[in-house]
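Good day; I would like, with your permission, to put a structural problem before you. A protein sequence and the structure tokens that stand for its backbone fold form the material at issue. I would ask you to consider whether the tokens describe a fold that such a sequence might reasonably adopt. I set the record out below, with my sincere thanks for your time.
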Amino acid sequence: MIAFLLIGAAYGWFRAGKLGGTRADRVQYAAGFGLAFTVIGLILALVITRSF
């Protein structure tokens, strides 16, 4: 799940930079995408755990 958080934060940071955002925009995008990717990772972990 930590990997999903880091991947999501990096993706958000670069996406905001690509859109021409300021540092505050990059931090906000990194936080938002980090949380979203963490939720996805949590759901995947639960599905994998329940299926075995």
Summary: The chain has one domain: 2-51. The longest helix spans residues 23-51. Helices lie at 2-18, 23-51.
